[in-house]
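User: quick one
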Amino acid sequence: MTETGKIEPVLDVSNLTTSFRIGGEWHPAVRGISFSLQPNETLALVGESGCGKSMTALSILGLVPKANGRVEAEHIRFQGKDLSRLPDDEMRKIRGNGISMIFQEPMTSLNPVLPIGFQVVEALRYHQKLSRGEGEKRALELLELVKIPSAKSRFKEYPHQFSGGMRQRVMIAMALACRPKVILADEPTTALDVTIQAQILSLLNELKAETDMSMIFITHNLGVVAALADRVAVMYAGDIVEIAGVNELFARPTHPYTEALMRSVPRSDRDTKTLYSIPGAVPPLTRMPQGCRFAARCELAIDVCRTQNPPLDVLGSGGAHSVRCWVRGNHDLAEMKENADV
Amino acid sequence: MLRFVVRRLIFAIPTLLAVMTVVFVLVRIVPGDPAQTILGDQASAEALQNMRERLGVDRPILEQYVEFMGGALVGDWGESMVTGKPVLAEIARVLPYTIELTVVSLIIGGLIGIPLGAWSALHRNEWIDYVTRVGSLLGLSFPAFVSAILMLIVFSIQLRWLPVISGGDRATFGEWAESLALPALNLGLIMAAYITRVTRSSMLGSLGEDYIRTARAKGVPERVVIWRHGMRNALIPVVTVVGLYLGILIGNSVLTEIVFNRPGLGKLIVGALGQRDYTLLQGLMIIYTFVIVIVNLLTDLTYGLIDPRVKYQ
Ligand SMILES: Nc1ncnc2c1ncn2[C@@H]1O[C@H](COP(=O)(O)OP(=O)(O)OP(=O)(O)O)[C@@H](O)[C@H]1O
Ligand code: SF4
Ligand SMILES: [Mg+2]
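Assistant: Done. Structure below.
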């Protein structure tokens, strides 16, 4: 796909940096990341808690809290517009319409004092000129599409009358309402128990197959990635450290962090008691190391890792697999050493 | 919902009976002879005895209790020891004044406090927010009778917009509004100060909730996000505070009533206290209990209007 270079991406993010002001200083939570999303493609964003996955999605939609947050980008291109420079009212027309989002917390993401039917209608109302009756009819269809049992009779019920899984279905119905080109799914199943997770994932897969939408699927569960994604971007401390097609990534995980993530996936053929977990923790925003952010936890770290952050290098000739690592990227380490000495 | 109201009123009956009993006992263990208080030190023994008989305080306590409770239940609350008029009639005369003052103050307080609180929350830590917070703090700590006098000076004496003492003539709407304007504004501003503060803090809370982000992510216009999604949820604590404050307001309006020379429960109770009018005091305390029961009931009903999670069991 990418090789032809002919297909226009639906979404193209270039050099996105999202920072927070903490104690009077700006600290980037997302550090100049770039990626693009092809039509009908699912790109998974994976990484540990706090690595900037949600902020990446929120930045695209312009929903980063304005009080202490700041988004900068070379561009975030969508349908010929640069979302990073769009005025508020223009941006509003894109939210929930061209790009919509499903959130991590189904229990708190719906308004407790409004009926769920109304909340779905609301997703249509400000983007499409529909009469009240038409809006309700379409909302009902959507609730049926996401398989809410007896949707008609539950239309006027409130969120507290629904289980977590059902609420997430309502969220999905809202996200799909205007047939968006891109869905940003931020860990839509993390808060749900395993069987419900599987149901929601297969629902998303079905819906994606039936429409031509693209999806950015945020998760820290590599099992989900294997089942759902076409391409995977691995994030660590605000950087994309590796990006590749899903088969390529599972066949040749290259970044030491990706390898560690793979080892920490629970597998049915192994004892879960011996499950590997990556020692150490993600550095906090206010204490980011100067060099490679993973250096403190990396078994392969060498001197240069602690002073300089490696660039994202393309591996091989296809251009589809990139990695950000001094050891595993295409670097002449001898030359590196010389340069570092200068 | 009607069943809920009826049940709540039925549950209020034991409360009322208990309050009546306590009131009855209290009034009787207060030192001093009511007959002496009424007639003064110079009264003859015979006159005192006559008065005691008239008041019924010479009979056995249990008999008095049965008579008091029985009478109260059928609407006979006895006569005022001072004026001799029926207690219920005395209360009924001033009650409408108290109710109208309370309701209009509440409306003024809500109309000012809710938008101001929301505005302040939306401009958190900007100068608007600081001004509002300092202003509402002043409103809370300013003595009601001082602001009442200031209002009289400004609006009645300086600007001459309103009469200093409303004649008590309330035949037309204009006269009614004139007599109510300043007292209601005075209490309304205090109410507004309370409401502004709660609205601000609960609005800050609700605007930080996940469902607000969801609403924005759907492309709902900001105005709708704030009022429909933010305010609906923020109102729940506001109702609680209003409910609590309303009870206090009804009791504390006495200084406002005195400054503006209008009748009301507050003034009646102070008068009854000063003159040891025990029968009137009894009646007033029962009425207060009843008012509190009603205010609590209305508060709970309002919760139900705002929040679907509230169930009327
Ligand atoms: N409002 C905020 N103010 C300050 N820092 C913030 C704020 N929101 C997020 N951050 C920081 O930004 C970083 C990235 O957060 P983000 O929510 O994107 O993580 P995530 O990858 O989605 O993690 P999770 O898996 O826990 O959802 C974190 O270090 C977080 O502490
Ligand atoms: S750059 Fe160095 S520290 Fe960073 S992942 Fe590669 S080897 Fe490890
Ligand atoms: Mg997140």
